[in-house]
Design a protein that fits this description.
The structure is a homotetramer. Chain A has about 325 residues and is of the alpha/beta class. The first copy, chain A, is about 45% helix and about 15% strand. Chains in contact: A-B, A-C, A-D, B-C, B-D, C-D.
C-alpha cells in the first residue's frame, strides 16, 4: 500500500558524464556521447525522465534530434536547465550582472531554452543561477542587483506562461554568496515576480549546506501557494555541496522528507542531481534511486499514520524508538 | 560630516548582570540590583536607551518604579522582550506550543508586556521566540505549529496597533532548530500576518550563524516594506552565538553593514546584545559602542560616496585596497 | 555470533538529572536524589556502569556511601570526572589558568578525585577540561598555558600510576576555543606527558563538531599506542554539541565506528553522555543503548568480513548498496 | 623598528594564471605563458620568490630554462609542489593509494621533483596531498592507508636529507576528507616519520576551515621541534577554501598570527596561495602582500611589547580596546 501514486524518478543527464574540479579540469573520467548517456539513463531501474542542460546537452540546433532520442528511450524531459553558469561571459553574473548587455544575453539564453522546452513538451525550466551572487564584501549592490534579477525572471516567466520556472537555491559555489541562497529568500523573490509560474527547486544537499531542515523548507514552500516546483536529490556532510549518493549519509532525514513531500502534495519529479567525481555515474544514480524507493516502500498508509501520530505527540524518545524499530526490528517485506 | 543624523545606541539591560551556562548555572558573576545596572547602563558613553526583559527586569507590579528609574537616568526604554523563553512552561514552545493552554499563556504574557510598553512609552516589542522550534526530526508539525505561531503574532499585533513587534530570528539555541531561523523565513511570516506593525529584528551574530551576509539581510528586509524594525549587535566566530564584543572579530563586515543600514534608511536603535560570560559587562558594552562609533565616524559623506562607487564597480581588488587604506593609511581624524 | 566479547555500556549519572541552559538556569526538570538516579541507571537495559562527576555526585565525604549504593545496584564506577568546569574559580581555566593558585587548586581537586577513584576501585579519571581554553584573539598565551596544562596532567598522572587518565577533547563550549580541541592535538599532549597512563576520550558528538571522521580519529588514537582510553556516545547536527540520543541522526557513521572500535581492539566502556534537555533522561539513555546494541547485533563475524572487504575495495557504490541492503533488505534476526 | 629581520614574501606562480572550477573547466581567464607569469610575479612589490608546481610549471625537461628565467627575474624558488593531485592517475590517492603501482608512481614523481629542487637550489618540497583521503564512510582503510602514506613520506625524505618536506594540510577538497586534515594530525605523521626534514605547512585558509585558531596551530607546530616549515596565506569565510585576498575578511586574526610567527621564530617564507577566480591575479596578490606588510609595519618592538602584556593579562575588553585604538585612533606612521 503506497502513500499515493508512485513517485517518479529522473536524473540530470550530466551525472552520467565526465566529472572535473578545479584541480583536474580535464576530468576524472572521459567525455561520452550524449546518445550513449541517454540510453544509460533509461537503463537505470526506476528512471523515467531526464533533465538536460542548455548548451551542454541541448541547443536549438540539436533539439529535434534529442527529441527523437528521448522518444526512442521512452524518457520524459523533466526540465531544462539553461546554461547561465558555465561560460566566461556569466562569470560576474547572468540575470543580475552589472553589465546590462550580459543581462540581455541571459534573458535571450533563457528564452531560447524556453522555446526548446516547448518544442520538447518539457514543462519546467530549472533556473540555477550559480554565478548570480558575489564574493567579497562591498562589491555587490544587493538592492539593485537583486531587483534586476527579479525583473529578469518576471520578464521571461511572463513571456512563457505555459512553462513553470523553478528557482534552485544554493548558499555558495561557484560564488561565495548566491543571491538565491536559501529556501525562504528564494521564495520571496518568486512571490515578488507575481508570476504564478515561478516557484522554487529544493536541492536537498543545498538545503543541508544552508543549515535548513529540508522537510521544513518543503513545508514552507508548499504553504505559500504550492511553490515547491521541483526536487533535486543527493547527499553531503552538511558543510559543502558534495553531491554524493542519496542516503549514503542521511537516513532519518530522508524518511522525514519523503513523508512531508507526500503530506504537502508535492507532485513533481524526484530528480537525481549528483556529481560522482570518481564513481561510476550510472551505479551512483542507481543506488540513489534504490535508496529512495526503499524508504518509499516502507511508507505504507499504516506507517504514514504512525508518523503523523509521532509528529502530533512530539516526543523525541518515541520518535527515535520508532525509527530504530523501522530500521532494525520490523520484518522486511 | 556624519552620514545622516547620529545613530542612537542602547543595550539590553541583562548584559550588565550575571552570566551563566549549562555547566555553571549559578553564574560566573553575581546577581546585581536592577537599579544599579540601569545606572551603569546610563554611564556608558553613547548609551541612551535600554531594552528590558519581561519578568526579569519589568513586570506590571514594578513598571511604575522602573519608569521612574529610567527617567532619573535619562534612558529611553527602547524595547521590551517578553519572557517567552526562560520559564519551564515554555520548554516546548510558547506561541507555537502543541499545548493550546501554553499558547494561551504566551499570548497573555505578550499582552501584559505590551501594556507595560504602552505605560512606559516604549514603542517596540522584541519577540525572540527561542523555545519555538524543535530538536529532533519527526517531532514537529511544521505546518500546524508555524501557522499557530503566525496567528499568535497576528492576534497580539492586531490588539496593539500602536506598538511595533520585531521578530528576532536565530537558527538554533536553545532548540536545535528555531521556527524563526533566518531573515527571509521570518520576514515571510511577518508579511503573512498582514499587520503593518510586525517586522524583523536582526541580531548580527544570529545572522552570522545563519550563514547570511548581514548587510544583504538588512537590504532584503528593507526592500520588502522597511521591515527591519530593530538591530542587535555582537560578534562571534560564525558557528555559534558567542555574543562577543562588537568588532572583536569582524571589522570589514561592520563597515558594510553600517553603510547599508544608512543607505536603506534604517531608523531604529543600534542596540548591544552581548553575553559577557567572564568579562566586566559594562566594559564589554563600552567597547562595542566605541567600535561602532569608530566606524561611524569614518563614514563621512565623502567616504560614503567612495563606497557607493566601489559597490557600483564591484572589483574585489579595488575594494580590498580601499579598505586597507582606510584601516592602515589614511590619517586619523 | 558477536564480534568479540560483548561491549559494556555505561552512563554519566547526570544524564538522568536536571538539565538547564543559559536561558533557564534553574532547569527544564527538577533536581533528583542521587540514590534514585543511580537506581534508575541500573534499571536501564544494558547499563552496567556509571560515570560520576566530582563534587556533583561524589566527594571524599560521601564516597563510602556512594560505594555502597553502587554495590547495591550492581553498578561499576567506570570513571570519575573531576569538577574542573562548574565552579566560579575555574571560569578562566583550571590546570591552565594564568593564576598559579588556581592551577594548584585544580591539581588538588584532581588528586582528591583520584583518591576517591582508588577507593571505589574505579580505574579511570576522565579529564574534561572545558574551561581550559580561551575566547578572544590575543588573550591566551598558547605556549605557556598549553605547557602548564601538560605539566599539570603529567604531575597528577605520575602520582597515580595505577589509574588511567583520559583527556576528553571538544572544540568549543564553554570557551570559544578549548586547548583540548581535537583528537590529534589532545593525543599530542598525552604523548608529551610521557605517562603511559594518559590517553584520550572520544566524545562522538565532540568529534562531529570538530569536523572529524570519528572512526578515523579512533584509528589514529589506537595507532599511537592504544591511546583511546574511553568513549562517550551521543549525537548532534555536526555544528554544536547537541548531546542528543545516539543514532537519532547518524546511522551509517555508527556502523563504521563500531566496526573500527572492534577492529582496533578498543576494550573500554561504551558510555552514554547526553543532555536530554526536555526529554525523560532514562528513556533517552535507553534508546541510545538500544540503538548501539541494534548495530552491534548486526555486526556478526560474517558481516565484519563483508565490511573488511568493502574497505579493502573502496568503491562507494558498493558500500552504499551494502548499507542499504543491511538497513532495508536483509531479513531481521 | 621592525620585529626582527623583514619577512620575505613569495607567491605560488599559478595564482597569476588561468582559474577554473567544476562548472567552467576551461577557465574564467586565459592560459598565459609561464615566462610572462614569472615576470609579473617579480613585478609585484615585495615578492622575492615563487613556488612552482611540478608538471604545470616545471619538469626535468624545462628545469634549466626555468632556472635561467628565475635568475633573470631575481626570484628565489621557494618551494616546489609535486603534482600529486591534478592527474587522472591520482584520483584515488597518490602516496596512500590502494593500488601499489600508483604509490610507486607517486614516489617516483616526488623524487623527480626533489631532483629538480636540488638543481634549482630550492630548499623545500611542499607536499599537498589533496587526493589522499576518502569520500564515503566504509571505503578507506584508515590504518593501512595512513601507514602507507607515512612510509612514502619517510622514504623520499630519507633519500633527500638536504631538502625539507612540508606537509600541507586541508580538511577537505578535492576529497570530502583528507588524511592530512588538521595541524596536529599532520604533525603527528611528520613526527612518526622520524625524519628531521619533515614538517608541516600551514595554509591559513585551510586552518580556518579546520576550525583552528591559526596562531595556536603555529605555536603547536613550533613547540614540537620547530615543525612549522612553511606558510601559505589567503582568506575565506571559514567554511570553505575560498582562497581570497589576505585580510579581505580577517584582520584581527592576522595581527595575532604575525605576532606568534615572530614570537616562535618562524623563519620561512610568507607565501601567497590564492585562487583569484574572477579578479586580476597580480592585483589580488599585490593586495595580499600589501595587507601583510601593513600589519607588519605596525608591529614595532613597542607594539610587540604591548601585545605580550595583553596576552599575559588576558582581558578581552583590554585586548579589544587596544585593537580598536590600533585600527582607528593611533596616528598613522
Amino acid at each position: 500500500m503506497k502513500i499515493t501514486s508512485p513517485n517518479r524518478y529522473s536524473v540530470i543527464l550530466g551525472n552520467l558524464g565526465n566529472t572535473c574540479d578545479r584541480f583536474l579540469p580535464t576530468g576524472y573520467k572521459e567525455a561520452r556521447p550524449k546518445r550513449e548517456m541517454l540510453r544509460e539513463a533509461a537503463s537505470i531501474p526506476g528512471i523515467e525522465g531526464v533533465e538536460l542542460v542548455g548548451t551542454w546537452d541541448i541547443r536549438e540546433d540539436n533539439a529535434e534530434e534529442v527529441k527523437t532520442w528521448l522518444k526512442e528511450d521512452n524518457l520524459s524531459c523533466v526540465s531544462i536547465i539553461p546554461d547561465l553558469f558555465s561560460q566566461k561571459r556569466w562569470g560576474l553574473g547572468s540575470l543580475s550582472a552589472k553589465d546590462p548587455a550580459i543581462r540581455q544575453q541571459a534573458l535571450d539564453e533563457t528564452r531560447s531554452v524556453a522555446r526548446i522546452a516547448r518544442h520538447l513538451g518539457c514543462p519546467l525550466i530549472n533556473l540555477w543561477l550559480g554565478q548570480d551572487g558575489y564574493d567579497y564584501p562591498l562589491t555587490a549592490d544587493y538592492r539593485k542587483q537583486r531587483t534586476d534579477l527579479m525583473e529578469g525572471i518576471r520578464q521571461v516567466a511572463g513571456e512563457f506562461p505555459d512553462l513553470r520556472f523553478a528557482l534552485e537555491y544554493k548558499p555558495k559555489e561557484p560564488r561565495t554568496h548566491s543571491f538565491h541562497a536559501r529556501a525562504a529568500d528564494t521564495l520571496l523573490m518568486a512571490l515578488e515576480t507575481e508570476c504564478p509560474n515561478v516557484g522554487v527547486c529544493i536541492d536537498v544537499g543545498h538545503a543541508f549546506v544552508a543549515g535548513e531542515n529540508v522537510a521544513e523548507a518543503a513545508v514552507i514552500l508548499q504553504h505559500h501557494g504550492e511553490k515547491l516546483f521541483h526536487m533535486h536529490f543527493n547527499d553531503n556532510y552538511r558543510s559543502w555541496d558534495d553531491d554524493m549518493i542519496v542516503g549514503s549519509l542521511h537516513v532519518v532525514e530522508y524518511f522525514e522528507l519523503l513523508f512531508w513531500l507526500a503530506e504537502t502534495g508535492y507532485a513533481g519529479w524526484y530528480s537525481m542531481d549528483q556529481y560522482p567525481y570518481r564513481e561510476d555515474g550510472a551505479a551512483a544514480v542507481r543506488e540513489s534511486v534504490a535508496f529512495l524507493r526503499s524508504v518509499e516502500r516502507l511508507l505504507t498508509q499504516d506507517v504514514i499514520a504512525e508518523m503523523r501520530e509521532l509528529i502530533a505527540v512530539g516526543d523525541p524518545t518515541a520518535t527515535t524508538r520508532w525509527m530504530r524499530e523501522i530500521l532494525f526490528e520490523r520484518p522486511r517485506p
